Amino acid sequence: MLEYCSLYSGSSGNCFFVRSKNTNILIDAGVSAKKIISALSNLNIDINKIDGILITHEHTDHTKGLSTLSNKYNIPIYINNKTWNALNNPTINMPKQNINFFNMNHSFKIGDFEIFPFPVPHDAADPCGFNLYYNNKKISIVTDIGHISSEILDNLKNSISIFLESNYDPEILKYSSYPYMLKKRISGDDGHLSNIKAGETIAYLYNYGLRNALLIHLSKENNFPELAYRTVYNEIINCNNLNIDVAPRDNPSKMFKII
What gap in Å lies between CA 116 and CA 155, rounded to an integer? Predict the structure, then answer.
């Protein structure tokens, strides 16, 4: 059995959880270690049972609790070189044996899982998405992504489940109080993914086996959970047996299961 959930999701912090029978993985650690441990505890998951933390990119909302978790609980970190160097954080002082560097487009293993990292467009040093394979099943995570390319779609094909950014509504962003340059960054090719583009991507992937999508990294200022869901739903209305859920901002989502 394969299980997954979001622990926290949004511009204030991101952390996701995936497990098989024998392996437990976190993806990003963008809130305090205390919050992550509390969320895991509420799901009856022991922090000492975490086998590794995958890092998508260096931004604080994805790495805030990383150092404490690795130091205090001796958890291995999986990160690429450019992202590691870009952390530039004096609190990052993890045991060298816990730091595992991966290369883009090259698979590696953590316990039961085969992990395949692939590049995504975002204004970070070397941001990536991940495909996780277990028992002939594939789930994918793509967060903080400015646009969807054909290469990204190729990487996401044949995923049965996906964590996908659905960050903003273009009209809300247009009339928000954000400065012009920030609006331009968010909507740019290296920024974030809109609800509409998330829906179009999910509808496309349905034709390649996608059956579950969890919408993540919603903007607090430029989106609403109901709006994200409805916008995506309107794009996938003809996709039977496709389940859409929205990750909560400050607490865990439900635990999803793939048998």
Answer: 9
Cα-based distances in Å from 1 to 52, 112, 135: 19, 11, 8
Domain ranges of the chain: 2-258
pTM exceeds 0.90 for this model: yes
CA–CA separation, 144 and 81 (whole Å): 19
The CATH superfamily assigned to 2-258 is Ribonuclease Z/Hydroxyacylglutathione hydrolase-like (3.60.15.10)
Distance CA(210)–CA(192), nearest Å, equals: 22
* One-letter amino acid of 241: N
Best CA proximity match to 75, nearest among 92, 57, 50: 50
- Each of the 259 residues of the chain gets a pLDDT tens digit; together they read 899 999 999 989 999 999 999 999 999 999 999 999 999 999 999 999 999 999 999 999 999 999 999 999 999 999 999 999 998 664 467 788 999 999 999 999 999 999 999 999 999 999 999 999 999 999 999 999 999 999 999 999 999 999 999 999 999 999 999 999 999 999 999 999 999 999 999 999 999 999 999 999 999 999 999 999 999 999 998 889 999 999 999 999 999 999 7
Distances (CA, A) of 71 to 25, 126, 139, 224: 17, 24, 28, 36
